[in-house]
Amino acid sequence: MKAAVVTALGAPLVVREVPVPEPGPGQVLVRIETCGLCHTDIHAARGEWPVKPKDQLIPGHEGVGIVEAVGAGDLPVAVGQRVAMPWLGDACGHCRYCIDGWETYCTDPAYTGYTMDGGYAEYAVAWASHVVPVPDGVDPVDASPLTCAGVTTYKALKVAEPRPDETCMVVGIGGLGHLGLQYARVFGCRTVAVDVHDDKLQLAKELGADHVLDARGDQAAQLAEIGGVDIALVTVPSPAAMRAAHAALNPNGRLVLVGLPADNRLELPVFETVLKGVKVIGSLVGTRNDLAACFDLHARGLTRVVTETRRLEDVNACFEEVLAGEVPARLVFDLR
Ligand SMILES: NC(=O)c1ccc[n+]([C@@H]2O[C@H](COP(=O)([O-])OP(=O)(O)OC[C@H]3O[C@@H](n4cnc5c(N)ncnc54)[C@H](O)[C@@H]3O)[C@@H](O)[C@H]2O)c1
Ligand SMILES: [Zn+2]
Ligand SMILES: [Zn+2]
């Protein structure tokens, strides 16, 4: 099969023929139709994070495809079914976090396209327990970005407990943020979209943002005019953007961190945090139920996924396009 392989951290990916993997007990073989390019894949291929990915990684955690074969066991999915292969590739099911509905913080997880091979390939093996069925009526090109960008921002807002009388700011209107903005509206919030590219700001307007802020300008003055925000969801991997979002919060505000900067450090003022009762929340992807909710919202017409499709052979050029901020929200590899 054709796959894009990280042969060395920081080197361009190599698109080459590799053997089709075989599903072991409890696993399924998925014939990949589409896989989104999440910014995480770029961090992974460059080895930018404190914990490094597996050797000879095939990235991709927005893979969507058809179950082609199943391994041994009484499995919850069948051949022919369309499934998504999210970041949470496996969880133990019995640690206190799994039992409590927080499987994303499992003490013994597997991460698709990081600790196990992912969807930048014609086939991939997944744990049957952790693929999520894609409902009929959700196109695979839409399902792919929902599988990480969607579920991550949906869950990040859910944990911030948004109320319809609140204002929610989404910083970064890329793959994650363009969906986060829509979920903020679904939760009933007034919305503020922030980015540094004109076309992203234009997209935010088209997606119904109540206010659109250019982070290249004087954000503080514009935010004062809006009256501050109650929730700030930061999808940009930038400590400076996180600090600016913190400064925009009203009393009882929630700063939700989702973007993962390579330097892994953030300095925040203590006084403004304490005197305003601000909560700083980190959030990692979402559970299988959260992803099912994202598919359901989409099937009900409540979200619009903005994509352009690409060939897997162009993966390295695609990484550059994303880094330059030149893509319309999400690039999706179409392997059909
Ligand atoms: N926590 C999680 O579970 C989780 C899940 C997926 C991705 N991530 C991380 O989220 C981050 C974003 O991923 P993505 O795929 O949406 O990336 P992306 O490149 O598609 O989007 C980033 C957006 O931020 C904008 N931007 C850049 N600098 C900015 C600034 N200073 N102020 C405002 N906007 C700015 C860009 O123009 C772009 O629109 C990455 O670090 C990724 O690893 C985290
Ligand atoms: Zn992702
Ligand atoms: Zn667990």
From TrEMBL:
<protein>
    <recommendedName>
        <fullName>alcohol dehydrogenase</fullName>
        <ecNumber>1.1.1.1</ecNumber>
    </recommendedName>
</protein>
<feature type="domain" description="Enoyl reductase (ER)">
    <location>
        <begin position="10"/>
        <end position="333"/>
    </location>
</feature>
<dbReference type="Pfam" id="PF00107">
    <property type="entry name" value="ADH_zinc_N"/>
</dbReference>
<keyword id="KW-0560">Oxidoreductase</keyword>
<dbReference type="InterPro" id="IPR020843">
    <property type="entry name" value="ER"/>
</dbReference>
<dbReference type="InterPro" id="IPR013154">
    <property type="entry name" value="ADH-like_N"/>
</dbReference>
<dbReference type="InterPro" id="IPR013149">
    <property type="entry name" value="ADH-like_C"/>
</dbReference>
<keyword id="KW-0862">Zinc</keyword>
<dbReference type="InterPro" id="IPR011032">
    <property type="entry name" value="GroES-like_sf"/>
</dbReference>
<comment type="similarity">
    <text>Belongs to the zinc-containing alcohol dehydrogenase family.</text>
</comment>
<dbReference type="Pfam" id="PF08240">
    <property type="entry name" value="ADH_N"/>
</dbReference>
<dbReference type="InterPro" id="IPR036291">
    <property type="entry name" value="NAD(P)-bd_dom_sf"/>
</dbReference>
<keyword id="KW-0479">Metal-binding</keyword>
